[in-house]
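Predict structure. Chain length: 591.
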Amino acid sequence: MKLKAYISLFLFVASTSFVAAQVKFEAKVSKTKLGINERLRVDFEMNTDGDNFNPPNFNDFTVVGGPNQSVSHSWVNGVRSFSKTYSYFLAPKKTGNITIAQATIEIEGEVYKTSPVTVQITSAVSRPNDPDDVENVADDNLHLIAEISKGNPYLNEAITVVYKLYVSPDIGVSNFREIDSPKYSDFWSQNVDLKGNKIQNGQFQGRDYRYLVIRKTVLYPQKSGKLEIEPLSLDITVEVPTNKRDFFGGRMMSQVHKTVSAGSKTLQVKALPEQGKPESFTGAVGDFDFKLTASKTDLNATESLQARLEVTGNGNLKLFQLPKLTLPSSLEVYEPEHTENIRTSLDGMQGGIADSYTIVPQFKGKYPIQDVEFSYFDLKTEKYKTISSGQLIINVLDGPTNSTSTDANLATTGEGKQRVVMNNDQFAFVKSEANLEPIISEPFLNSTWYWSSLLLPLMAIPMAMVFRKKKAERRADVKGNKIRKADKLAKKYLGEAKKSLGQKEAFYIALEKALHNYLKAKLHIETSDLSKDRIEELLLKRQVEPSVMSDFLTILDSCELARYTPFSEVTMQHDYDKAAKTISVIDKQIR
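Prediction complete.
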């Protein structure tokens, strides 16, 4: 009997193992290397029917089709075969090696997993090698082109990139979205507003097309040499006519998803010439005017005037510093207020920037504001030009005479200072006689401290209960906790920014984080929503004045600009003070 039991057990185990060994569940891909504008087909195939199929998470792909399920049965020489397949059609979101994780399914009580599959995604190919006719029709009639105004600009010379989507009249486009945007890491960049953008007619490669301008971007190269502009890629839903007809004889359309890319572009950026470069040159490139003006030149002592250094014209206005005024020491001067009035079009930055100095004379006399020079590189003549502001004379009509200098026009250097005369009453405030009184000690028993020590623990119990309840409510307030955390971080980073004054990169990183966390606290938005257009929309909606909102965005621009231009400690202090002041004003105005 025992022998029969062992034989039965052996046969059962063997048959179970045999069945298990026959089950196959595997993942197959249509190709292991493809361009980002191609499609990948993934099949999860099994030879035994199962339940509870779970596909992997296609985080690095866009699922453009599927899951499609197919089942087949066949008998060959009396042997039955079975196949069941789940198919997905995927569009890659990025380049590089991407691993498709395991899928799972339950077959006869056992859970089976596929092996991970790795595919290599390359840059966009000139023509996807998909043999499907609909795909080929879409490829032949859909093009994304990047038009660059100049291929060999100078350093800090404005160039424009216009992205146009050409669509043949033979197909239709129902929707598109950006999936891969250029970073412009070696450029200062700004997108140009596309208000009133509409479809236009034109030609491409000798054929008639309709085209739509997708984006216009102004670039200022920040280093010389060979620079690459990364490609812009779009995911587009295309309507392609087929040879099939509907019930009324109309041509049926087939919808297909396509990824088109403008391709990368290479620029050869020329360095500015060293020959003839003036000492006063700080990086200005373009065509500019420069002037020094004063609100008044005749005034009395302790009255104030405004001296304004202003540069206007067309060029890289946000990417250089204005020269500094040199003033006699008898004129009290405050840190300049920097203002910008700049608009960006396809011709680059236009407008003006200015530094306004508040000056307060202390003594009667005439004081010169020395001549100031401003130099820039003129792109038309390809030579440096220098403009002089001319000298201004400040005439102080009435006030005390500066006895420490024989000439009011000269800055005092410490000569002529009067000796301080000490007198015998200089320490008269120090008391020389003590006025002490004895301390009478009071017994602790039945004293105020005695009863307080008895009653305070009893009073602390209800207070602890209330505190615990409030703490639990605060802990449950997830949204409020996020706001408080962001507000705390804003204060923290403002503190870190202040500590980093003089260290440009660390200062502006901390300042930008402080501004972002402040917005997250006040506007209840996440970091992914912190675009300038969104910030402007929300601040205006919350009744913040446009001028205050503009100041806030200007500070953010300064944080971005700090990567490319030299910033002095004075500028950093100005930006820090402006950030603190702007946050305070927004707190008062926001609703």
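Summary: The chain has four domains: 22-122, 133-269, 284-396, 476-589.
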